[in-house]
Specification:
single chain; alpha/beta; TIM Barrel; 8-stranded parallel beta barrel; two-stranded antiparallel ribbon; 14% strand; globular; binds zinc ion
Length: 294
C-alpha cells in the first residue's frame, strides 16, 4: 500500500497540463479535472500535442492519480431519449480524452430517478453504461459516485451502485465515495463505529475492492440532510475528528482523496476559489498524524 494521496479538483483551462502545475502549486499529489465545461454539452477540443504535454508533465513530476469528472448535465436515467444520448456521448468523450491522457479514470454522477427509485430506471441506466463501456477506448476506469440524495440521485444508497455494478458486470466499472454526499445521505462516517457500519454495508452491497477513489469534502449539511453542500475540511459537520477517523481506516490507504471544497476567501475569490493550499495542508496534516487503524 502506498498510503493516501491527497489531491484536489483543479482547473485545466489553458490546456490539461496546466492542471498538474496548479495541483503542484497547492501541494496536491493527485488531481481531478473537467475536460469540458461542466455546465455545457459542447466538448472541448484537446490536441494531441496538449495531451502529450500533459503526459510528459505528469511523468517528469512523478505526479499521482489523475481523474476526470464528467460534466454535470449528464443523466443516464432521463426519460428523454435525446438527453440520454447526449449524456452517453458526454461520458464517452470524457473516457476518450482520459484514455489519450492516460488518466486513472472518469467519475460520473449516474443520474436521477426523480424519486421513482432505481428499479424504475434500471434497464435504461444499465443499457447506457453498457453502451458507454463499449464505445470507450481501453484504459480509464468509470467510477460511479455516491450521492447526497438531492432530487432522487442514483447512488444515495450504496445498494444503488451495487445493483448497477452487478447488472453491468464489467471490471472497468467502479465507485467513487464522496464523504460529503454519503454523510448527507445518512451514513455517519465521522465516528469509528459509524464508519465501520457504513463500510460494512458498502462491502456487502458493492464490495470494497470496487472503491476506486474518494472525494474528500466536509459537509455544510448535517447527517441525513440529503443536500449536496460541500464545506472546507474541518469546518463542516464531518469535522477534523471525522477526517481523522476516515484517514485512519485501512480501506482507504491506497486511495486518492480528492478535494472539491469551496476554499478560503481571497481578494480575487471572496467566496473561495475552490480547493486551495490550506485545505490540502489540513488533509495532509491529518493523514500524517493519525496512525492507520488495525
Ligand atoms: Zn464528489
Ligand atoms: Zn457534491
Amino acid at each position: 500500500m502506498g498510503g493516501i494521496q491527497v489531491g484536489a479538483h483543479v482547473s485545466s483551462s489553458g490546456g490539461l497540463f496546466n492542471a498538474i502545475n496548479r495541483a503542484i502549486a497547492i501541494e496536491a499529489g493527485a488531481c481531478q479535472v473537467f475536460v469540458s465545461a461542466p455546465q455545457t454539452w459542447r466538448p472541448t477540443k484537446h490536441t494531441e500535442a496538449a495531451l502529450a504535454q500533459f503526459r510528459a508533465r505528469r511523468a517528469e513530476t512523478g505526479f499521482g492519480q489523475v481523474w476526470i469528472h464528467n460534466i454535470y448535465l449528464a443523466n443516464l436515467a432521463s426519460e428523454d431519449p435525446l438527453m440520454v444520448e447526449k449524456s452517453i456521448a458526454s461520458v464517452v468523450n470524457a473516457m476518450t480524452v482520459g484514455a489519450a491522457a492516460e488518466v486513472n479514470g472518469v467519475v460520473l454522477h449516474t443520474g436521477s430517478h426523480k424519486g421513482l427509485g432505481l428499479e424504475a430506471v434500471l434497464d435504461r441506466v444499465v443499457d447506457s453504461l453498457h453502451r458507454i463501456l463499449k464505445a470507450s477506448p481501453a484504459g480509464p476506469m468509470l467510477a460511479l459516485e455516491t450521492m447526497a440524495g438531492q432530487g432522487g440521485t442514483i447512488g444515495t444508497k450504496f445498494s444503488d451502485l451495487g445493483t448497477l455494478l452487478r447488472a453491468v458486470d464489467s471490471p472497468r466499472l467502479a465507485t467513487c465515495l464522496d464523504t460529503c454526499h454519503s454523510f448527507a445521505a445518512g451514513y455517519d462516517i465521522r465516528t469509528r463505529e459509524g464508519l465501520e457500519i457504513a463500510l460494512t454495508e458498502y462491502d456487502r452491497e458493492i464490495g470494497l475492492d470496487r472503491l476506486a477513489v474518494v472525494h474528500a469534502n466536509d459537509s455544510k449539511t448535517p447527517l441525513g440532510g440529503f443536500r449536496d453542500r460541500h464545506e472546507n475540511i474541518g469546518d463542516g459537520y464531518i469535522g477534523v475528528e471525522g477526517f481523522e477517523v476516515l484517514m485512519a481506516h485501512p480501506a482507504f490507504q491506497d486511495k486518492a482523496f480528492l478535494l472539491e471544497v469551496p476554499g478560503y476567501p481571497t481578494e480575487k475569490h471572496p467566496k473561495g476559489g475552490g480547493p486551495d493550499l490550506e485545505n490540502v495542508r489540513r488533509l495532509k496534516a491529518i493523514r500524517d498524524r493519525v496512525p492507520v487503524a488495525r
